[in-house]
Amino acid sequence: MFSFLEIFADLIVVHWLGLSIETHLGGALHFFIYDTLKIFILLSVIIFAVAIIRSWFPPERTKRILSHEREYVGNVMAALLGVVTPFCSCSAVPLFIGFVESGVPLGVTFSFLISSPMVNEVALILLWGMFGWKIALIYVGTGLLVAIVAGIVIGRLKMERYVQDYVWEIKVGDSEIAEQSWPERFAYARDYTSGLLKKIWPYVVIGIGIGAFIHGYVPQDFLVKWAGRDNPFAVPLAVALGVPLYANAAGVIPIVQALTAKGMAIGTVLAFMMAVTALSLPEAVILSNVLKKPLLATFFGVVAVAIVMVGYLFNIIL
After folding, report:
1. Under a CB-based contact definition with an 8 Å cutoff, are residues 52 and 89 in contact?
2. How far apart are CA 269 and CA 75, in angstroms?
3. Which of 6, 187, 199, 287 is deepest in the core (most CB within 10 A)?
4. Which 3 state secondary structure label does DSSP give 71?
């Protein structure tokens, strides 16, 4: 199928528009057309499959499972559940609030808040398709490790007093969950996939567009000079640049692919990806209404340090 997509991109760029893919514009347009089609096909298939799995784990059941586990086990489970909840950093906040008010330990809720946007089926499949299974699995493994360890650290700091008081006062029902038939699960998956794609498609297209621009126009020497393998500060610089941005995994992976093709070390670009997906200024604004400043600063600081360490680890082993 992907070979057909490349032929289709060649047809549009070379035969219809009369451009060479060796030119800046032709190369950028070819990248944009091919990756847009490829990513949306992958997203549709994978999100539908994961939505079927999620039909057994609605929020009420998820909160109940986590509430009855010991803290460290809860951190692991919360991070793993984040894998099958493809939220962006902002849309994970409402469920984060639900976890807190239902009595889930604070550190466990942060493991979910980190894992859900940073490590999910979208990131796994797209990284697998673009970089191979080793990079994809290493990214998922280290992402889960960041979520688990950061959640444990925050939990051990005992910072519950820095959660806004109103959060503890919210009451969410604990109603029984009706069993669903397979046709109902398929209908849920169809509607969920359609709804999610409608929400994220602008970010995906923008991300691919930025990646296409980098692929076609940004000189390789420019990126290698400022964030190349020989720059010892490339990883923290990438994380600092990634935090002000806002995108989900599907939107940022095409940028990661383009940056890697330009010569940036894989650890540096994946640290950038983790920073963009797990930490963002819009997320900070939303969380500021839920968390007091000391806890918000601790969350961003712990996660940023962990991501920098992972970036250096990637650069050493790959």
Report:
1. no
2. 27
3. 287
4. helix
